[in-house]
Amino acid sequence: MGSSTLAALAGAAGRIHTPAVRSRLVTAADRPALRRRIQRLHQVAWPPFLRDDAVNGLWPRLYTDFPAFQFVLTDRRGRLVAAGNSVPFAWDGRPRSLPSGIVQILRRAIDDRVRGRRPTVLSALAAIVDPSQRGTGWSAEVLLAMRRLAGRHGLPTLVAPVRPSAKGRYPLTPLSRYVTWTRPDGSAFDPWLRVHVKLGARILGIAPRSNTVRASVGEWEAWTGLALPESGRYVVPGAFQPIRVDRRRDRVHYNEANVWMLHRVPARSR
């Protein structure tokens, strides 16, 4: 990815965009019972195949070790409209030293906490809008809420391993090329990347194995509704790239790349 492309995609990166906030943020530290409501949103947010047993094993630690960084947003009527998961960890600011994926983010955050290392950055893990509220601007509100959380805890930076929302429609295009696509007006082609960029974020690089799925052929057939009769590569709905089927071992392997993006937290929030 060339520097000129990154500059174009970042647009006004460096200027921190902070639209007016129209939501109330409530964390799991304030109300532990929110965990169930956040989990319900997760159940409808992801493709059925997108699971990682290592991530699933560590995910409950978010609510026991980092409840102040798990939250919901409610609108002015008090309705739950979105939720977010995030975690702080120590980072030296170099893109190459970022964790390679979601499970590595969780492990680093937990290890930093156990060893008493001071976190320097907040990492997004999930930003979920209630299905009935999608397309109404709440995704940007989740990112703004994460920046506010980072500010509350004295963290100057928010990073996010972004799962581009439309990449599954273009599974044969490498993510490193996909992120360079733009619309006629010069804005990012992907809707979710575009939300980040409009808020002033910039791309740091690609996390090539952000999510890893290892499951049986039967599980993938159930998730996708497709027969997978022989070993080889298959394009399946929603996957960012073809899956690799090994009928002899009864295994399917899928690595999903994400895009690392960086948001600066406004000084007045810290």
Describe what you observe in this structure.
The chain is of the alpha+beta class and 270 residues long. The chain has one domain (3-215, 259-269): Gcn5-related N-acetyltransferase (GNAT) (Aminopeptidase, 3-Layer(aba) Sandwich), CATH 3.40.630. Helices cover 30% and strands 26% of the residues. It contains nine helices and nine strands. Strands 1, 2, 3, 4, 5, 6, 7, 8 and 9 form a nine-stranded mixed beta sheet that branches. It is globular, with a radius of gyration of 19 Å. The model is unreliable at 1-14 (pLDDT under 50).
Q: Tags for this entry?
A:
globular; nine-stranded mixed beta sheet; Aminopeptidase; 270 residues; alpha+beta; 9 helices
Q: Topology, please?
A:
Layout (H helix, E strand, L loop, with lengths): L2 H8 L13 E4 L6 H12 L7 H6 L2 H5 L4 E5 L5 E10 L12 H14 L5 E9 L8 H15 L4 E6 L12 H4 L12 H8 L3 E14 L1 H8 L7 E3 L8 E4 L4 E14 L6
Parallel strand pairs: 4-5
Antiparallel strand pairs: 1-2, 2-3, 3-4, 5-9, 6-9, 7-8, 8-9
- Give the DSSP E fraction (strand runs of 2 or more residues): 25-35%
| Mean pLDDT score | 88
- Let me know the number of strands: 9
Regarding CATH, which class?
Answer: Alpha Beta
